[in-house]
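During the first year of the project, the team set up a workflow for recording each protein of interest as an amino acid sequence followed immediately by a discrete structure-token representation. This format lets reviewers and collaborators read both layers of information side by side without switching files. As required by the reporting guidelines, we include two representative entries from the current panel. The first entry is reproduced here exactly as it appears in our internal archive.
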Amino acid sequence: MDTYLSISSMKQAPKTEASVNGVALNAAEVIAQLTRRYKPKQHRLAWDDARPFVMQAVTTTALASNRDASKLMRIAAPYVMWCVEEHGLELRAELIFAPTLIDRYCTTEFTREGTGGSYRSVLLAISASVLPNSRPKMTAMHKRKIQAPYTAAEMKAHTLWAAGQKTAISRHRCMLLVAFTVGAGLQPGELSTLRRTDVTMDDDDVLVRVRDRNERSVPMLREWEEWATLLVDGYPDAELLWGGPRAPSGKNMVSDFMYRTMGAVPALTRLRATWITSHL
């Protein structure tokens, strides 16, 4: 199979729908105009190679399903770059738009179930358009069982991932994420409001107070107390442990940050599952 999508897979474009500078454009050309404006926030050099592949998939889907081309592009482009940059996949439709890979991306890369579900719906629509013969039955995300916890060997690899980031702020945030998710069971979104004063230490233990909607106090697991102490020792009381005086905006703050880190990124759901199973 060719690297890019087969041109024959695209439906015949309807007649003129718009014009640019007085020149009539058909539907495919209108969609191309919309999608060509997209610029990714990361991986801009790699995007130059991926752009034609993504544009063709978006155009095929928009023509086949009458979906918003701009929305398709906003969802498809980061996903394709995740496939290429994080997993080294070739730009081949049967690899990139495999439903099982889409499912993995939407399950592990989003902190909110609803966001992952809506992204999966769009990406599966693209998959159905470019791979019409591949339609496996998928389980609804809200009906899934808890994900398997990480093994001790896997957690060792994740600690190396966190401590091995290039910049000080990336190391701090990755260590914070691992220590307080696996060590205290915090949800990723709860990290955005955690302050130095929410972490208290004495000779017996480290206690983490969560002030979000699910307010509670959680003792840090012993094996993560050293990291917690290292992260908060000397940190300004007025600052958020994630960084800055105010909580950052955006529902996917943690996953957006993790997308920009180096190495094999741990799955947020499995990190917390590891904490849960430590109490069984």
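The second entry, processed by the same pipeline in the following quarter, appears below.
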Amino acid sequence: MILEFLMISKEDLEQWESDPEEYMNEEKSEVWNYDLRPCSEVLMLSLVHHFSKSLVPVLVNMVSEVQNNFIPKIAENPQIILTVDAVFNAIGLSSYELFESIDFSSWFTSTLHPLLTNPSTDKILKRRICWLCGQWVTVKFSTELRPVLYETMITIMGSEDLVLRLEAAMCIKLAIDDYNFEPPHFENYQESSITALFKLLRDCEECDTKMRVLYIYTLILKRLRGKTIGNLGQQLTEYLPQLWEHASEHYMLRGAIVCSLLELVLALASSSTTLYNLGTR
């Protein structure tokens, strides 16, 4: 089922290229009962949950096979990427069933991180690894490796491919929204992450995408509340009136803008007087 129904399709790849925002919006929406691959993902997750004793060893063996026999041959046969993508998809979906059987932190260090930082790694595989890290970071991920994850995702957010940038941003969101998040580990990445997110916010066109990115920006302000943000909020402050007009018929985005403004006020504290004239711009 994994290699037949969880594999990314030709139609998916075409939409990725032609309309990356719509592709990501569909990936993040609840469409599993209307589309074959998401439906198969839900079925697989249910099967692994109810028959974990039988299926967990199978998934662990698939990881070993991909690690030893598929990834080394990607350069010779690019089609292997689709197989690896499907297996990684299954491993991410089953993270809560596999956390005792797979040492994800070691796997990240030995294989996933080198793939993410290798410029020649295909964007399909790189995007799937970003997603995979997001699935595992809230389940079992070394505290010591989180700064490495932050730096890697922020670097990817500076790439050209919009799907890659959005997936890396979502991984950051999951990492900092986690119970085990430790603000001191992220402080050194506050400026670079907010800068990358703001550029991503400006580059997106769809209101749904902007809302998702703005939420992550706001979440960073919230999680680091009490820390000095200096001039980091200035760009967003200047952009919010324009974004408000852009969202004239998208009230959920306008709600997200209000939430962002609230966090900006709390983050700027006594310096928030600079926001007083925002509504007149």
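For the second entry, the following points were noted during internal review. The mean pLDDT is 89. The chain has 16 helices and no strands. Both points are flagged for discussion at the upcoming steering committee meeting.
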